[in-house]
Each structure stands twice: as structure tokens, then as C-alpha cells.
Amino acid sequence: MDNKPKSFPPQEMEQPGKEHKMTPEPEIIRDGYKGSDKLKGKVALITGGDSGIGRAVAVHFAREGADIAIVYLNEDKDAKETRQLVEKEGRKCLLISGDVGKEDFCREAVKKTVKELGKLDVLVNNAGEQHAQEDIRDITEEQLKRTFDTNIFSMFYFVKEALNHMKKGSAIINTTSVTAYHGNKLLLDYSSTKGAILTFTRTLAQMVADKGIRVNGVAPGPIWTPLIPASFDKEHVEKFGQKTLLKRAGQPSEVAPAYVYLASDDSAFTIGEVMHINGGEMVTT
């Protein structure tokens, strides 16, 4: 029986959103999810890993046997809670705080991961931000640059350094969005970055395939994460996700297993693809 919430209490918060302030807090891993060593002995770096989808990916990866490094901006409380969840699974968790829009920081985050955890097998480019605007004329130069810095430029920065450490069998997973396919009139700059991530994923896959490194993506639909109450007004939040075929938003716990698949050997013949986890929003790929 589907017991996921159909609506949410009206709520708003400042960017970046804080998971511990959400009502209800997102579901990170479903009861009954059993790990089976799909990522045993691997090391994964996850950007935006403090909360939402990133947190769920970190916990699922840990349950599958991986040690984790998570990169986040300044959400220290959320990051520490994620670390506790990973360590509860018996795995190591390295916290790295900084601005993914800065290439120097991204380079050093990868190097620190390799130094502290020994190697890098999986890179999950998941950090993102969005700022709703009804009119393109209200999108400031600062907002535009910030959104592109965080959402797409950071992926270039992390991959450039990660490739110095990854070996055959490694995986890169990029978080795009359903908005890359049909847009969102309130999220022009965000949707544009997600379209860029789609093309980045497909092209990078071609570039590194001969190295034995697989590149794929996940395109979530409406998922209940801190990004939502930090981006929209109370009325939008209350109705968030109700236009899907399931009449509700998804939970991070329902997205993270797709990342497990793409990070593991189960997807050995999957490359340059994007998985759609969106509650039935039909898209043309």
C-alpha cells in the first residue's frame, strides 16, 4: 500500500535548504532495503551529499559496502547527520565543505577523498540549486552565474580531477532532471543547466568509454528534498508533486536505488544513458 504523503504542510525556508527543518523529513531509505555488497570495497564521492537525494545515495551506497565522501556548502548539521547514517552502516564518511562553483575547491575535494579513503571509484555529481522566477527579466546576472556554477560547471571541475584517479570499471553519475526534457516556466536557468547536464553526460560517456569508465545520469521528477521549500512559496509546496500519475511527490529513497544500479557492475553494459524516476511524467528521450 502506498503510504507516501499526497501533500505537504505549507512551509518555506532560505537557501540552501535544511533537511532537519522540513516537515515531514524526507524518507532516506525504505524499510526492508537489503544491501548485497554491490559496492563492496568501493569509494564514492557525492556532491550535495548532505541532504535529499545526495543523502539517500550516500546511505544506500554505504549499505552496499562503499565508503563515502560527501561535499556540501555549509549545511553542517545535515552533513553530520548524514555521516552518522553512513557510519551506522559500518562505513567511513568524510565530510568536505566548500563551494563547488570554484574549480580549486573541487580539485582539492577529489584529492582529499583519495588521500583519506585511498581511492575513487564512483563520482556522483549531484549538487544543485534553483531559484524560481516568473519573468526572465528578474533573473539577475548573479543568479544566472551562480546557478550555472553550481549545477554544471562544477561537474566539469570534479570530472577533470577525478579522471586522474579513476580506473577501468569506475563510474560517473550525473543528476539531471525531468526539466531538461519539458522545462519549467518558473525555472528557466535551472532547466537550462539540466539540459546542459544531459548533453554533458552523453558526450562525456563517449569521451571516456575507451578508458573503461562509464558515465550515466538520473533525471528525477518531483522529489521531496530541501530544494523544494527553499525554492517555492508555501502554496506551491503544499501541492508539490500532485500532477504526477501517482498524485504525489517521490521520496529520495525511491531515487537512490537507480544510483546503486549505475554505480555497480549490474550496469556494466549501460553507458551514456539517463534513468527517469519521476512518478509517470512521460518524456521524450
UniProtKB/TrEMBL annotation:
Coiled coil: none
Statement: the UniProt record of this protein carries the keyword Oxidoreductase: yes
Root EC class: oxidoreductase
Superkingdom of origin: Bacteria
Keyword Zinc listed: no
Descriptive protein name: Glucose 1-dehydrogenase
Organism: Pontibacter mangrovi
Compositionally biased residues, Basic and acidic residues: 15-33
Species lineage: Bacteria, Pseudomonadati, Bacteroidota, Cytophagia, Cytophagales
